Amino acid sequence: MLNEKRVKLMTQMAMYESKEGQTDFKISGYYQKDYIGLHTWIMVIWSTIGYAITAGAVFFIFLDEIFANPSLLRFLILGGILLAGYIATVVISVIVAHNFYKKKHVDARKRVKRFNRELIQLSKMYEKEIR
Fold first, then answer.
1. What are the start-end ranges of the H helices in the chain?
2. Can you give the pTM of this predicted structure?
3. pLDDT of residue 1
4. Contacts of 9 (CB under 8 A, 6+ apart)
5. Other C-beta atoms lying within 10 Å of the C-beta of residue 44
6. Are 60 and 114 in contact (CB under 8 A)?
7. pLDDT digits (tens, 9 = 90+) for 103-112
8. How far is C-alpha 2 from the geometric centre of its chain's CA atoms?
9. Are 35 and 119 in contact (CB under 8 A)?
10. φ, ψ for residue 70, nearest 5 deg
């Protein structure tokens, strides 16, 4: 005979597994520190590429103005501004990525733990039915 509570639980678990469960299982397969570190480094790489493209575009836009009155001091100031902008971009992207991926890992881990508890509950329901 079908147990209505068990069927509902199995349906709920199947929906989770087919939707967000696949990504949650992949995420929770990492240690939190490893997952955050990996994705933070990826974010730093992409931020560097984006900053280089943006700085290059701005450089080519203002190329005439930059070389209109060349001097060593002007180039040092420009280099300092570029370096400060890059450092600020990387620091901000690291902070944002760390917080985002930490929350993502914690949330995925909670959902996987809930799924595991439901598996145990389902197993107990089967054991009761067999007895």
1. 4-16, 22-28, 32-61, 63-66, 72-130
2. 0.82
3. 52
4. 118, 121, 122, 125
5. 16
6. no
7. 999 999 999 9
8. 42
9. no
10. -70, 135
